[in-house]
Amino acid sequence: MQKKLIISLVVVAVSSLICAAQSRNAGKPSAPASVTVEIFLADAPGINVDGGRWEINYELSMVTDELLIASIKRKEEEPRGDLIKQDFFKGPLKSIDNRKVPLTIPLDEEMQNRLRNQPPMPNPATLTAQQSRDYEKAAQNFAFRAVVEIYDGRLRKTVIVPVHGTWGYDTFPEARFPIQIKIKAEDTFEVAYPKPPKNGQEKIIKHQ
């Protein structure tokens, strides 16, 4: 009897915690549970040649508009913000499956709360100076930095491709970022970064 009572009390306690968490999040907008950065090697001289391989060393951070604007004013590199994950990937290059790497990076509760509490993008026509400052402090951006080392089986050499991108959450609410790389010749390449969704509004960072 006593054992059943203890089990019942535990169940009630757990249920109460779940209800409390649901209550805290009630009415809040949803936030993505993860960020997906998909890197695709679309073309290279040795795209179908055996022996090709690549390595991706990357990090994903979250940074506010306020920090981005401050770095522009000081003419510095973009700030790294708060690190979400730093990792690497290694793999062969031959089939289409090997040439597309989806990096799925989970977001913890703190990061998700930052996104939930972000105000909507203000209307520039009615924006006051105080509203602008408040928005800049709360607006979150995903900053992705990577070095992609691609060994091309035809060139018989490694081509190093730096990949840098910063994307606003209000422009990319699904937190999905497709990146396409093409190696054109021995030391030339191009990187295509994600564009805002068809109905999305591209954020432009300005400062006076």
Essential attributes:
25% helix, 208 residues, four-stranded mixed sheet, 37% strand, four-stranded antiparallel sheet, 4 helices, elongated, disordered N terminus, alpha+beta
What does this structure look like?
This protein is an alpha+beta fold and 208 residues long. The protein has one domain. The chain contains four helices and eight strands. The protein has helices spanning 2-25, 65-73, 109-116, 129-138; strands spanning 34-43, 53-64, 82-92, 100-106, 140-152, 157-168, 176-183, 189-192. The chain has a four-stranded mixed β-sheet, with no helix packed on it. A hairpin with a 5-residue loop joins strand 7 (176-183) and strand 8. The radius of gyration is 22 Å and the shape is elongated. 19% of the residues are buried. Mean pLDDT is 82; it is low at 1-27.
Number of domains: 1
In total, the number of strands is 8
The amount of helix comes to 10-25%
Mean model confidence by pLDDT? 82
Give the topology string: H per helix, E per strand.
HEEHEEHHEEEE
The largest sheet is: 4 strands, mixed
Shape: elongated
Give the strand line-up of the largest sheet: 4-1-7-8
| SS-derived structural category | alpha+beta
Strand content: 35-45%
Helix count, per DSSP?
A: 4
Kindly provide the radius of gyration, computed on alpha-carbon positions and rounded to a whole number of angstroms. 22 Å
